Amino acid sequence: MSTKFTGQDILLQAIKDGLKGDAHSFELRIRKFVNKMKAEYPHFAREVGSLVSDLGLLRSSYSKEHVLPSPVEPDTRQQLLIEKFPVNLNRTPSWPENTQRKVDRFLRERHRVEELLNEQLLPSRSLLMSGPPGTGKTLTASWVAKELNLPLLTLDLANVMSSYLGKTGNNIKSVLNYASSFPCVLLLDEFDAIAKKRDDETDVGELKRLVTVLLQSIDDWPLSSILVAATNHGELLDPAIWRRFDCVIEFDYPDREQVKEYVMSWEVSEVVADWISTGVTNTSLAIIEKRLLEAKKDVILEGRSIVLSLKDSLCLSGLPNDPDIRREVAYELHEKGWANIKIADELGITRQRVASLLKEKTELNRQELQGKLNYG
Description:
17 helices; alpha/beta; single chain; six-stranded mixed beta sheet; Rossmann fold
């Protein structure tokens, strides 16, 4: 018996999907119908294809007209979502190669929605990120919203979680309904708090029912919006959650090259950045950023060397015997007006060695300036 579908079969299925409110299947079947009709009815196929494309463009453009009111907690009237548009970032995220590839792939699917739909392929609508705190999960969600020029909606778990049975579930439902009603990126941070394993006997029945609601919402999520979830404790998530997300990215602490590149972006010399990247392990860029800010303040407020400040703030074991780093420190302190004897005491070397390091640095600066002049 033939299983080949005719144009009428596809159209009938599309109508059924439309009546059920399944917009994704409806659009996919209509596009399949258009491809089926191209050869025999080219003009009709073009007209229908144009209508479908217009529908897709309308659903992917940001407009808050006719959108549901922003959800609030019924008792406290506190906003359940933090909304941000446009999304601006102070720096471009830095990921390991494998993570970079997955983020780029997710964005390519979103940028080429029409091409995928024309081939009856559904672009990714959901992204699950798991990994230690401070490894870039929240930043990645912001980057996705920025690159797609969509508003970023972040769930405020403190306001969503209620001590009253049923209230938490209702709050989550209102958030999901709101975010699915217009093009946006919805970030569910600390996702493990609301998507725990249903075999956890310590949880009340409401949270277990909430997982079922989340699973259904992920399955039915509209193509126009993006659902992003982030967790520091992936092991706590219900196994069914992992299978529902279109894209899953595991985050980890940055490797040595990432740390070095990031530290250098703060105008720290390569030799110092290399030393720091060797001594810092299992530390997120968020923590390194915080320590860099502390070190910068020490330089201004206490007249210290940036290297010595970083040594203390990052709990590094001490200055290495590397003469290049000692030269950097000696010259920086000299520029701040420190006497050679004080520099010698700080570095644990002789005054003669300090004088030698300063002479070397002066010559290196001269050579660098000469090279720039020659190049120019």
